[in-house]
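STRUCTURE:
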């Protein structure tokens, strides 16, 4: 039911612009970092709720923290990309926050639906995620020793294909009535939708960041939301706007009109020029 019931959502997710560009090696370092931040918040929420519900009969058979949990690996990636004070340099984006809020709601009020979120994430990580690992390592010239892509490394899964078969068998053996199964399929489709919203958000940020900024040629804000604490809050544009390309891009995501888009382009160009002068 999960495989057939999420096929359309799965196909749509795989054909988002972000994923297609990623698979072609067109992933910029700044966007990859922001995508990793989104994963950190997502898995922190998911694994917190899984830990709280590890003895729930509808989820207990799928609780494999040693083999599957990703928060520790993502912490290593955060340290690699943002340094030892990484917690002070990141924030949860709007799209990711919606995803996280839904996971917490499910864990607290409908724990049987955690099956959908675990299935959607971990089975994907053990499948297409392994392709993305190789693409990212090559495209971003990351160290061959694995720094920056620990999220994709499952040290305690010796054979991914066999583990996926075992995990699916555990799902099939869950003692659930038809209505519960249908709700899990519905929730899995929601999970795909949340992921697509995160991809769309990243696409919009990428479109508003300059090529130089995405490649690291210019200082790019690392994700901190407070303008006053932004390390690149040096150039003032108009009435106190930040010269940080990240902040310009994030601000413009909330402005739907073409006038605001044009204003963002002008502001961003001015900010880039200012960095070269400095």
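SEQUENCE:
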């Amino acid at each position: 039911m999960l495989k057939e019931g999420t096929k359309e959502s799965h196909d749509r997710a795989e054909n988002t612009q972000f994923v297609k560009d990623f698979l072609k090696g067109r992933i910029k370092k700044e966007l990859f970092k922001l995508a990793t931040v989104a994963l950190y918040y997502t898995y922190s929420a998911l694994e917190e709720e899984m830990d709280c519900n590890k003895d729930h009969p509808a989820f207990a058979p799928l609780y494999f923290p040693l083999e599957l949990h990703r928060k520790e690996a993502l912490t290593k990636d955060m340290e690699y990309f943002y340094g030892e004070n990484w917690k002070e340099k990141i924030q949860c984006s709007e799209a990711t926050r919606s995803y996280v809020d839904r996971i917490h709601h499910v864990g607290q009020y409908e724990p049987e639906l955690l099956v959908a979120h675990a299935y959607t994430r971990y089975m994907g990580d053990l499948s297409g995620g392994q392709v993305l690992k190789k693409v990212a390592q090559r495209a971003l010239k990351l160290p061959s020793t694995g720094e920056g892509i620990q999220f994709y490394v499952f040290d305690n899964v010796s054979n991914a294909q066999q583990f996926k078969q075992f995990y699916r068998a555990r799902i099939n053996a869950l003692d659930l009535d038809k209505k519960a199964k249908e709700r899990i399929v519905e929730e899995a489709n929601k999970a795909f939708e949340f992921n697509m919203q995160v991809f769309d958000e990243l696409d919009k940020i990428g479109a508003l960041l300059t090529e130089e900024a995405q490649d690291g040629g210019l200082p790019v804000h690392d994700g901190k939301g407070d303008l006053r604490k932004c390390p690149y809050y040096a150039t003032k544009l108009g009435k106190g706007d930040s010269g940080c390309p990240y902040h310009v891009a994030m601000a413009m995501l909330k402005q739907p009109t073409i006038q605001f888009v044009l204003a963002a382009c002008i502001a961003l160009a001015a900010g880039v020029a200012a960095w070269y002068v400095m």
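REMARK: The first strand starts at residue 236 and ends at 237.
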